[in-house]
C-alpha cells in the first residue's frame, strides 16, 4: 500500500508522513528530496514551478511508487500532488491512496515563515493554493489537530482500506 500525504507547502506533509511511516513501520519518502536542483533554485527565488518543471519531477516520484508496489513494500510519500492530473499520474493502481492535509491559510503562512531550512518561500503559498484542485477521493484532514491525532485518524482509515 502507498499513502500519499498531499497538500500545499507548509501544511505538514513531511511531519505527518514521517510520523505515520514510523507508526506503521513503513518506508517514507519526501518527494521534495526528488526535485532537481533547478526546481529548488527556481522556487527559492520565489518563482512558481510550471508543468514543464513538474512533470519530470513527478516521473521520479512515480518511479518510487512503482518500485514500492513492485516489491510489495508499503510506503508513505509526502508530495504536494496539487492537481487532479498529477494525482491520476501517481495513482498507478488501487494500492495508492491520498490523504489531503488542509488548514487555515494564515496558519500555513505562519508555518512557512518559521521554516529556515527549506527551499520553498512563504511567498509561493498563494500560487500553490491557486493551483490546488481539491481531491474527491482522498481522506481530508484539517491540520488544526495535533500531529499524533492526525496519524491515529489516518491509521484508522488505513484499517478500512485493507
TrEMBL record:
Query: Which cellular component, as a GO term, is one annotated location?
Result: cytoplasm
| Organism this protein belongs to | Herpetosiphon geysericola
- State the source organism's domain of life: Bacteria
The answer to whether UniProt assigns keyword Nucleotide-binding to this entry is: yes
Q: Which GO terms describe its molecular function?
A: ATP binding; gluconokinase activity
One GO BP annotation here?
A: D-gluconate metabolic process
- Provide this UniProt record's keywords sorted from A to Z: ATP-binding, Gluconate utilization, Kinase, Nucleotide-binding, Transferase
Work out whether the entry's keyword set contains Kinase: yes
Q: Which reaction(s) does its UniProt entry say it catalyses?
A: D-gluconate + ATP = 6-phospho-D-gluconate + ADP + H(+)
Q: What is this protein called?
A: Gluconokinase
Q: Which InterPro entries match?
A: P-loop_NTPase, Therm_gnt_kin
Amino acid at each position: 500500500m502507498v499513502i500519499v500525504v498531499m497538500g500545499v507547502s507548509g501544511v505538514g506533509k513531511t511531519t505527518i508522513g514521517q510520523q505515520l511511516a514510523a507508526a506503521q513501520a513503513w518506508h517514507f519518502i519526501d518527494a521534495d528530496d526528488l526535485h532537481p536542483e533547478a526546481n529548488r533554485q527556481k522556487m527559492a527565488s520565489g518563482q512558481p514551478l510550471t508543468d514543464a518543471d513538474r512533470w519530470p519531477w513527478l516521473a521520479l516520484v512515480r518511479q518510487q511508487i512503482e518500485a514500492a508496489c513492485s516489491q510489495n513494500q508499503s510506503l508513505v510519500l509526502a508530495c504536494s500532488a496539487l492537481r487532479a492530473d498529477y494525482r491520476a499520474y501517481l495513482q498507478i493502481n488501487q494500492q495508492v491512496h491520498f490523504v489531503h492535509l488542509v488548514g487555515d491559510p494564515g496558519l500555513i503562512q505562519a508555518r512557512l515563515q518559521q521554516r529556515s531550512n527549506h527551499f520553498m518561500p512563504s511567498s509561493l503559498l498563494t500560487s500553490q493554493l491557486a493551483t490546488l484542485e481539491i481531491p474527491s477521493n482522498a481522506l481530508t484532514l484539517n491540520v488544526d489537530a495535533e500531529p499524533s491525532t492526525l496519524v491515529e485518524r489516518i491509521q484508522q482509515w488505513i484499517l478500512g482500506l485493507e
